[in-house]
Amino acid sequence: MDREAAIERVLERARTFRGHHVAVAPLSGGHINNAYVVQVDGDQRYVVRIPGASEGSRVVSLDDERHNSVAAAHAGASPRVVEYLEDLGVMVVDFVVGEALTDDNVGDRARIPRLAAALKRLHAGRPFRADFDMATVARAWLRVCIEQAIPTPEGLSARMDRVDLAAQALAARPMTLVPCHNDLSADNLIDDGERVWLIDLEFSGNNNPCFDLADLAVQAHLDPGWHVAMCEAYFGRADPVTLARMALHATISGVGWALWASIMDRTSPRDIDFQHYVSAFWEPAHVMLDSDAFDRCLSVVSDGGERRQHRPERDRSGEQFEGVDVMRSDDPEVASIEGGDGPELETFRDGDHAGVDRAEGQVSVPRHELGDP
After folding, report:
1. What is the pLDDT of residues 195-249, one digit of tens each?
2. Is pLDDT of 315 > 90?
3. Cα gap 268→270, rounded to integer Å
4. DSSP for 256-317, written as a single string
5. Residue 156 has what DSSP assignment?
6. Residue 62 backbone dihedrals phi, psi, to 5 degrees
């Protein structure tokens, strides 16, 4: 069924639109689904999202996505789900008036408090139906690529054992799973000036809250300073263990999305340069996987900050970097983030905040690899 026939069918079927005068306009953006703004009787506006072909890449069922979208709306993180056509997998949601974000502006520092607040709302909401783990998903997507003879980035398969090490380190001291979006590309965010809304929860599932923070940074290619500022806004501080967690999640995210883009490059009918996405996600992940910083992050996350790393001698050239004491080490490319002795990493849930409490120590991570490899 072509796009025009698909939206006509929805307009005929949905009770939201039957018997009303409607005006329809397509929404741009998106890599899989087709979306439309439908204005009813010249007044109320809604968004209709029609699922597109996603052969080999869908990991959350349409019904689970609907359930999760309702839960996210109940938490105040996403627009209200007005209607769901189960047999078509079509959702009708409230239209949000606001700025559709882009990679160029999602990282604006003034927006960080609203982004952190949006994720806190989502993460404090009702649990989603199923868990989501990008390392597991990446393995599944790699199998799809192998089975369908889809090319993958050179060296990726050989480094999946390193991805597994990251997943194992993160699991060694697990954080409480919370409802997560798991696909925080800029075009899934709308800023109305007071709050940021999260849309399109097709990869949603219960996950480590650090993954959402890291994934947002990876998808928009944000710098390490943004990681620190976002970590502070969400958790109240940017301690080394949490930053190392974000770095590992960012690496896993990059590998996963590189494989997703490889599948989409073969299967998508859309005129999108998915090879660009393959390179943009894989190249920094590749650098991180092969780096000493990756091993340091594994150690820090596994130890929970209990072991003290070697500290480079402090010199007078230390600088304050986004509220964290960043000193120069012997390696000019390394930024050493210093904390205290650091008791054991704990998970906590407090009101609308779930995350990490008490985790400090010291870890040296290359500036270009900390959290956003």
Report:
1. 999 999 999 999 999 999 999 999 999 999 999 999 999 999 999 999 999 999 9
2. no
3. 5
4. HHHHHHHHHHHH--S---HHHHHHHHHHHHHHHHTSHHHHHHHHHHHHTT-SPPPPPPP-TT
5. T
6. -60, -35
Query: Which of 212, 46, 204, 205 shows the shortest CA–CA distance to 117?
Result: 212
Task: At 220, list the tokens.
Answer: 């928009």
Count Cβ atoms within 10 A of the Cβ of residue 59 and give its class: 0-12 exposed, 13-18 middle, 19 or more buried.
buried
CB-count burial class (<10 Å; 0-12, 13-18, 19+) for 217: buried
Q: pLDDT tens for residues 140-168?
A: 999 999 999 999 999 999 999 999 999 99
Amino acid of residue 296:
R
Rounded CA-CA distance 115/205 in Å is 19
Measured distance CA(313)–CA(351) in Å, rounded:
41
How many CB atoms neighbour CB 13 within 10 A?
15
- Residue-range domains of the chain with CATH: 3-98 (3.30.200.20), 100-366 (3.90.1200.10)
Residues 60/132, Cβ–Cβ less than 8 Å: yes
- What pTM value is reported for the model? 0.80
pLDDT tens sequence across 88-132: 999 999 999 999 999 999 999 999 999 999 999 999 999 999 999
φ, ψ dihedrals at 179, nearest 5°: -65, 120
Residues in the chain: 373
Alpha carbon distance, N-terminus to C-terminus of the chain: 41
